[in-house]
């Protein structure tokens, strides 16, 4: 007996999660869907469901920025396909997502039928992009690709700390948010700098910001 496929839907907008669930139901019968609305809950969900067949990932969830979440997720779970579903619909953004390891990019403006077809195609092992974008070239430098690989080596807690650094939080503020000691945060920062191959937290923030994506004007996140 074949097990039902399992799909994780990661988006902080409840209405769009509902739309994605409808699209998934049209694409796959008897599927199990798990919803999550932030990076922290996504990390926990992926850990609890490491046999998931697919992750549908928004680029602008709380706790992550642009392609950093995608690069981190691919590094931690290289065998788990990830499809970006985003309101950031510039061709270069779509192509860069594929370069950073996504198995597809679905624009949020796409009709429900198109979203269903894209999900089905990726589950069958294909890489999916809108036809008019698929033949373009991405602008991902070798340095960006190398940094994306380094992001994937961070632990879940280290990645959270890095994202809080990009928000300008101090060690004591991060310690308060994560309910740990300031000494623990200092140790995390030291490990982050070593793994990313940089010498200061400012350098780490600058490198991470290069993977940012401007949030679409139609979204509040």
From TrEMBL:
Keywords assigned by UniProt, alphabetized = DNA-binding, Phosphoprotein
Domain of life of the source: Bacteria
User: What biological-process GO terms show up in the record?
Assistant: phosphorelay signal transduction system; regulation of DNA-templated transcription
Q: Which residues carry this modification: 4-aspartylphosphate?
A: 58
Domain HTH luxR-type: start-end pairs? 147-212
Cite the GO molecular-function annotations of the record: DNA binding
Q: Which residue ranges does the record assign to the Response regulatory domain?
A: 6-123
UniProt protein name: DNA-binding response regulator
